[in-house]
């Protein structure tokens, strides 16, 4: 996709602060520091549309970005930050699940996992919520530049196995080299085009 414009829309804490339902939405989910902001910046060819940081923020916000007046990108709050206050840790689950359950314009989600780590409870919860609410998703393995080719491939297989997915279902990405950018855009296009999966509650 040719990026003509990419703009911050708003940050929301509560559902009534979400912007009106206007464009198809893609949500980005993952642990704090996994590289969510960096991925979004690479996708839209901006250095700092989304602030990147080595010290995760303490506020839990759902951030909305308008891309080309065609798609909304939603940067969901990160989790797993060791120094986060208990209140923040407690609020994360309900806040994210509420967004996933209620946002009717949500077409799909990208779950980011650092290629060096293993999926933990939070990742399995997210996948369970995606499935429960009929949200198609893809996994993006971030920071691929941390490994040589061989080690990269063995980690892709390892994480695929741990998640019960196929290696081919995962996208390997590096914000440093920008490798994987086209594959992520391809996945986004497919998610937006894919017919809605009936929700488990319907
Ligand atoms: N080596 C490497 N570092 C990355 C990559 N993506 C993000 N980072 C670094 O990881 C840290 C967290 O990135 P950020 O995008 O803010 O993560 P977020 O908390 O998930 O939004 C920053 O120091 C980034 O520079 C990547 O692909 N490769
Ligand atoms: Mg971020």
Task: Give, in spatial order, the strands making up the sheet with the most strands.
Answer: 1-3-4-2-5-6-7
Multimerization state: single chain
Through-space gap between termini: 34 Å
Number of helices: 5
Question: Low-confidence segments, ≥5 residues, pLDDT <50?
Answer: none
Number of DSSP strand runs: 7
CATH topology: Rossmann fold
Please identify which CATH superfamily we are dealing with. P-loop containing nucleotide triphosphate hydrolases
* Average pLDDT metric: 91
- At CATH's second level, what is the architecture? 3-Layer(aba) Sandwich
What does this structure look like?
By secondary structure, the protein is of the alpha/beta class. The chain has a single domain, classed as P-loop containing nucleotide triphosphate hydrolases (Rossmann fold, 3-Layer(aba) Sandwich), CATH 3.40.50. It has helices spanning 36-43, 86-102, 121-132, 149-163, 181-193, and strands spanning 6-12, 25-30, 62-67, 71-75, 106-114, 137-142, 170-172. A 7-stranded mixed sheet has the order 1-3-4-2-5-6-7, sandwiched between helices. The N and C termini lie far apart (34 Å).
